[in-house]
Amino acid sequence: MEKAIQQIAQTMERQLDFELEKLDALDGGDLEAIRQQRLNEMKQRAKQKQEWLANGHGEYTEIDGEKEFFTVCNKSENLVCHFYRHDSPRCRIFDMHLKILAKKHVETRFIKMDAEKAPFLTGRLKIRVIPTLALVKANKTKDFVVGFTDLGNRDDFSTDMLEWRIARSEVIEYSGDILTPPSEGKKKSVHIQSKKAIRGTKDSDSDLSD
After folding, report:
1. Biased composition, Basic residues: where in the chain (predicted)?
2. Is residue 51 in a domain?
3. Residues 118, 83, 64, 163: what is their CA dihedral angle, to the nearest 10 degrees?
4. Contact criterion met (CB below 8 Å) for 118 and 148
5. Which of 42, 118, 134, 194 could serve as a FRET partner for 25 with CA atoms 20 to 30 Å apart?
6. Do 89 and 26 reside in the same domain of the chain?
7. Are residues 126 and 90 in the same domain?
8. Where are the beta strands (DSSP E) in 85-172?
9. What is the dihedral of CA 113, 119, 123, 127, to 10 degrees?
10. Sign of the torsion formed by the C-alpha atoms of 150, 155, 157 and 163
């Protein structure tokens, strides 16, 4: 074991020495080019963020109808849409977490829509369970979060857990371990009486172009 650890340490040391040698080999012009490239990337990112905010990113909002849904899809590369009903306590749990994630992930638009006012969309996307999150990228549904099944099948899941689940569909930028869900600890589930169905469609990549 000690020999293996020593070999790993030596490998890491060689890699570090190699990177330092590359930095030492750079002249003033190379360093300036790297600095300028980084500056341009930061400016582009700031410009992109302003465009996102102008399109409603950074807030969790409700849209009025199905026509607006297609308008939002055309303006935003990444979209999380919560199909809800007013009488569902679990929808309010999603609301709480999505408000937080909308502010954190300005690269993605977070919206909600009353499922009863969207018969065409719910039929087209085969939504049978409330609540359901439709995860959309480039006008195509990449995935669905159906109820709380993928969140430990519990009502007291964390915002981090929902963030991780959404990130698996690549509609938000995520710096954590995409293969391992965040630790939920040993909590007891809070059961809700008025509960909808559990399972839903597995259909993905449904074309959402208007």
Report:
1. 188-199
2. yes
3. -150
4. no
5. 42
6. no
7. yes
8. 109-114, 132-137, 140-146
9. 40
10. positive
Mean pLDDT score of the chain, rounded to an integer? Answer: 81
Count of the separate structural domains present in the chain: 2
**pLDDT at residue 139, as a whole number:** 92
- State the Rg of the chain over Cα: 22
Same domain, 65 and 101: yes
Q: What is the dihedral of CA 171, 173, 176, 178, to 10 degrees?
A: 30
DSSP bridge pairs for 143: 135
Least confident of 6-15, 132-141, 170-179: 6-15
Tokens representing 107 are 């690269």
Closest CA to 198 of 154, 149, 125, 126: 149
Which is more confidently placed, 77 or 31? 77
Per-residue pLDDT reduced to its tens digit, 39-55: 777 777 778 888 888 88
Pinpoint the alpha helices (H) of 55-158. Answer: 66-75, 89-104, 119-124
In sequence order, the 6+-apart residues with CB closer than 8 A to the CB of 205 are 140, 141, 142
Find, among 58, 48, 162, 71, the residue nearest to 110 by Cα: 58
Q: For the segment 175-185, what is each residue's pLDDT rounded down to a tens digit?
A: 999 999 987 54
- Report the b/e string of 8-21 with b at 16+ CB within 10 A: eeeeeeeeeeeeee
Token pair, residue 148, equals: 């709380």
Q: What pTM value is reported for the model? A: 0.70
Which helix (H) or strand (E) segment holds residue 11: the answer is: helix 2-25
